[in-house]
Every structure is written in structure tokens, then in C-alpha cells.
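Supplementary Note 3. Input sequence used for the single-chain structure prediction.
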Amino acid sequence: MEGSELTVMVVTPHPDDAEIGAAGTIALWARQGRNVVYVVCTNGDKGSSDPNMTSERLALIREQEQREAAKLLGASEVIFLGHPDGGLEDTPAFRGELVRLIRKHRPDVVLTAEPYRRFPWHRDHRITSIVTLDAIFPYARDHLSYPEHKAEGLAPHKVKEVYLWGSEEPDTFIDISETLSIKLAALMCHASQVGQRAELVKQWVKERASTIGQSRGIPLAEAFHRIEMPY
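The predicted structure, written as C-alpha cells, is reproduced below.
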């Protein structure tokens, strides 16, 4: 979708997932003038192998890491839903949270994880994407769905496009040659996850971007499955 005055909503299962899957694209779009809003579904409070770490402390650490990464990428706002890591369920309440945010921020484009990868694939990723797609269509569109939002002055909204990162059947490739360095810097903000593997992570990300781009004659790329909403 062309145009700079667009709103992009990034719905990520955990802190760091969007940076791995789509940070080059997010940074590129932010620099083109698009308004980027992050929605972080879980607090990532299980993602540590440190036996001395607690879930409470880890959640605080990862929230700050995500704030720093999103700021580097150019996001205007980061919203934390605060669900426990590994605890997402496909429920009316969770779907309603996302419907409300879609109606409030009125994104033209939504970025989220691919729900249908072969295993292994974290359950939170599957649930996040499935619930996000359902929230987009038909719930956020239909005024009789979640009618309590009307009391907040929130009208129905139609998202125009969805980009799914992590797809095994991508059809859209975005050149991130100009923003790979920002993607890497954003990933390094997630020190609790990168740990001592920083250089290995950087190398893997560079090689992955190069491999994705090769098939399309792009030096460095991110790949997505793109859905144009028909309504």
C-alpha cells in the first residue's frame, strides 16, 4: 500500500518477536512517515534460562527492552496487554482487546505472526495471529460485535492489509538494505534474550536477510504473506 500518512499496527506475541520478523520493514515504514503502533500481547515472563530469574522481574526487564527497541524503530506508541507468556487463549475477551485497539487506532495495515507454520512454532504465536485475524475480520468491522465500544466513541473499522511474518509461503518481499542496521540495533535492545550470543544473532539475521532477498534480486529483505482484505 502506497502513501506515507498511514497507520501500521504491529501485534506481537512477545517482546522481541516483531524485531526478529519485521523490524527492518517497521523501521522503513516509520521513516517514510507511517504511524507505527505496537501491541505486545504477552509480558514474556517465561523467556529465561537463568535459574535465579523470576517471572516478575523478567516481565519488567522485557517491557523496558521492548520500549527501547520500539523507540529505535520509530514507533509512536507501545501498548502492553500483559498476558502471561504461554498463557494466551482464543477467547472473546482477548479478541475484544484487539478489536478495541483496532477501532481506536484505526490501522490501515496490521503486521503479525503467521499462524499456520509447521512445528515447532510457539503456541502464543498461533493464538496471537488467529485472534488478530478474527479481530480484523469480521469483528472490528461489524458494529454489532462488541457494542460496548460505542460508549467509548469507537466506531467500526476496516483494516486494508495484513502482513504475516514467519510465513513458509511468503509472497511479498521488502528491501531492508537501508534499515538492517536499525533492525540489528533493535534486536540488541533485547539483552535478556540475546545474552552472550549477540554476534551470532547479528550474523544469523544478516545471512537470513540475504537469503530471503536472493530469490528476488534484493540485497537484504524481509518476507511476508500479504492479505488484502476484500470486504
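The mean pLDDT is 96. The radius of gyration is 17 Å.
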